[in-house]
Write a structure and sequence with these properties.
Layout lengths: L4 H4 L45 H13 L4 E5 L2 H9 L7 E5 L4 H11 L5 E5 L14 E7 L11 H10 L3 E5 L4 H4 L9 E5 L13 E5 L2 H14 L5 H12 L1 H20 L4 E5 L9 H7 L6 E6 L2 H10 L4 E2 L9 E3 L11 H7 L5 E5 L5 H15 L3
Parallel strand pairs: 2-3, 2-4, 4-5, 5-6, 10-11
Antiparallel strand pairs: 1-7, 6-7, 8-9, 9-12, 11-12
Bound molecules: pyridoxal-5'-phosphate.
Length: 385
């Protein structure tokens, strides 16, 4: 019987005997670098942790199952995952990438992948006609939806159709929604990327990254690459992420519920000039979100009246922490212009609408009244109320 996602976060469909690992309910941490052999040609199935480790494998099976993929690969960070993925391409290959990606992805593409002669065409995938940009050497389309931080929503199924027609690999960074709200492979994507540091881990206590696919050819190449280049996630970190995933469902539900209320509150503030949350019906991507995802997530970007106001908020918040990252139980406020997107060239930043009065909230699972109380206090102080 097909299991539902909350259950899949906690149990993997496994052929294991029920009493494996002495019946341990929490999967053991195999904190070992290597595995012994009984004799020549007799492997336990594990030889060396860079090649595979049972705890990492358990995590990979869990994430593959959550994304309806056949294979998942766990990396030391989201960036390590994307970097390894870029190894599938050859010099002079062209990749069409969304212009409003996570800043670290843009930095990687422009400074590392470009050095390896990969060529990137950066466009607004949510509104431009992608087909106009496909060239003879184009091999892939790389998108995020909603994008970081401007929350642009791209139609995944439509993009997948274009990718299929031109034999391109469609890569979707699904970090913002997590597999709880969205499964891009079901909509035709070839590879799903996650920064597991965010919602999958969920506790701001460790980094990780994932690549997930259901294409055997891609899985085979990634399996070779991860063991060869060595950025696989360590056993203890794998266990932390496994533990985080168990509560993914209830965390996502609560964070989203809080985000709706905070987005509404922000809309009522005269110092807030714009609230960008895809769960608001006026968001241009709202209908596409409703069609392709099971929720809207808990990331809110908003603009305040000026730079001074933005900086004063960051200086005054205490319960809400001024920090990069997202997707954890703690509510964080980020200043994209000096933090996550500092290395994105200024002209691209401005074109994308990221200014020095843009703030990004990753809404956590605290009591929302406490979060709003703090925002009320900070806004009140700043407006002299
Ligand atoms: C954080 C993030 C990454 C990078 O992940 P790390 O785990 O920090 O290396 C990639 N994509 C998105 C959308 C992110 O938010």
């Amino acid at each position: 019987m097909a299991r539902r996602i909350e259950t899949k976060c906690i149990h993997i469909v496994s052929e294991e005997a029920e009493n494996a690992h002495y019946g341990a309910i929490s999967y053991p941490i195999y904190q070992t670098a290597t595995f012994s052999h009984k004799g020549v040609g007799q492997s336990s199935g594990y030889d060396y942790t860079r090649l595979q480790n049972p705890t990492k494998e358990q995590l990979e099976k869990t994430v593959a199952q959550l994304e309806n993929g056949t294979d998942a690969f766990a990396f030391t960070s989201g960036m390590a995952a994307i970097d390894c993925l870029m190894e599938l391409f050859e010099p002079n290959d062209n990749i069409i990438s969304d212009s409003d990606l996570y800043g670290g992805s843009i930095r990687l593409f422009q400074n590392v992948s470009a050095k390896n002669k990969l060529e990137f065409t950066s466009i607004d995938c949510y509104k431009e006609n992608i087909e106009d940009y496909i060239k003879e050497n184009t091999k892939a389309i790389f998108i995020e939806t909603p994008t970081n931080p401007m929350m642009n929503v791209t139609d995944i199924a439509k993009t997948a159709e274009i990718a299929r027609a031109h034999n391109l690999m469609l890569i979707v960074d699904n970090t913002f929604l997590s597999p709880y709200f969205s499964n891009p492979l079901d909509l035709g994507a070839d590879v799903v990327v996650h920064s597991g540091t965010k919602y999958l881990g969920g506790h701001n206590d460790t980094l990780s990254g994932f690549l997930v696919t259901k294409r055997a050819d891609i899985a085979e190449r990634l399996a070779f690459m991860i063991k060869t280049t060595g950025a696989g996630l360590a056993p203890f970190d794998s266990w932390l992420i496994l533990r985080g995933i168990k509560t993914l469902g209830i965390r996502m539900e609560r964070a989203q519920e809080n985000a709706f209320k905070i987005a509404q509150w922000l809309k009522e503030q005269s110092a807030v000039t714009k609230v960008i949350y895809p769960g608001l019906p006026e968001h241009p991507g709202y209908e596409i979100m409703k069609k392709q995802a099971r929720g809207f997530g808990a990331m809110i970007t908003f603009q305040v009246k000026d730079k001074e106001f933005a900086e004063s908020i960051l200086n005054r918040v205490r319960l809400i922490r001024f920090a990069e990252s997202l997707g954890g139980v703690e509510t964080l406020i980020t200043y994209p212009t000096t933090q996550t997107h500092a290395d994105v060239p200024e002209e691209i930043r401005i074109k994308n609408g990221i200014t020095d009065s843009t703030l990004r909230l990753s809404v956590g699972i605290e009591n929302v009244e406490d979060l709003i109380d703090e925002l009320e206090k900070v806004f009140g102080e700043l407006e002299g109320k």
